[in-house]
């Protein structure tokens, strides 16, 4: 039996999907940005939820970003404790950030407090959701 | 004691007390998820089965968060999740046997699941920060379970004579042991209360009665005294353990060779 090759804990075939909108990600910057934190937010804005094409930032899942000498920490929550896409999302966030040469490491800090609710969705996110036929109170 | 605490702030005795609580909560969530999952098909309606599916996922999501708290004790949760014998499981006694019928499932929702939430609410307002920071999300998700439980208790209680009798018997059957599990009256529980980590037993019992007593009374169920006979202080539950079949599913035995994490 062929043993699946592992990549960050996922079978290889999972790692070549286009979840997170990776087929639309920008090319990495050629120069380090003047504002690293803002640049990380821009990168994260390109990472889409695997189940619905809305940015993780617009969904309000990113609670914070800190950058120190190329080491990035992303404070990230999920819509549900049993979110089936947790590993996809972690992998997409890490891969998007690691494609930037000025980012040396990425640490994802799982946060549950305050709990995510639909109130955290941005106005832009609500507009996009409505365009997809999803109403948000 | 006041202020936010982590496991490193506690002495060995209190750390052991807190660990007992965390494992018992996590085990209860995991076994409850299995009991719900048995009824994803075979519930009284397709819609109800779908709701049971959502609740199953929630319970396992919560179990995962709770087992992960063991990292705060510098302990790998893996062996606790995947390698223990049934006799080591610390789930609420009421879940040791699977549900015989939908009335049993409703009793698990109305009594065991609601008791779990009472404990989570206590943790959320307590001083142990790693748990209080996670409990609020779990409690928010549990709100739907509570609504489902109340709706089904009322529905069956207002149904046929047999439906009313069966839901009353099921709830009455699991209440005494569940109350004992929810509100232990032993030294570890008292130490946790003194440390501000969890409310005292009488407080949690009062909260359960205040919150759910009227619902159960409407189904003909009186609030009993907790049954603390043969209390197992090491696990924080009564005697016995869940059956091997449930534990094999909880541990993921058949998928052991397929684990990718």
From TrEMBL, chain A:
UniProt cross-references to SUPFAM superfamilies, sorted A to Z: Fe-S cluster assembly (FSCA) domain-like (SSF117916)
Domain MIP18 family-like per the UniProt entry, residue ranges: 38-106
Pfam families assigned to the protein according to its UniProt record, in alphabetical order: FeS_assembly_P
InterPro entries cross-referenced by the UniProt entry: Fe-S_Maturation_MIP18, FSCA_dom_sf, MIP18-like
Ranges where the record places region Disordered: 13-32
Domain of life: Bacteria
Gene3D superfamilies: Fe-S cluster assembly (FSCA)
Name under which the protein is recorded: Metal-sulfur cluster assembly factor
Source organism: Gaopeijia maritima
UniProtKB/TrEMBL annotation, chain B:
The organism's place on the tree of life at top rank: Bacteria
Biased composition (Basic and acidic residues): 225-235, 246-261
Stretches assigned to coiled coil: none
InterPro entries linked to this entry: Aromatic_CoA_ox/epox (IPR052703), Ferritin-like (IPR012347), Ferritin-like_SF (IPR009078), PaaA_PaaC (IPR007814)
Chain segments carrying region Disordered: 219-261
The protein, known as: Phenylacetic acid catabolic protein
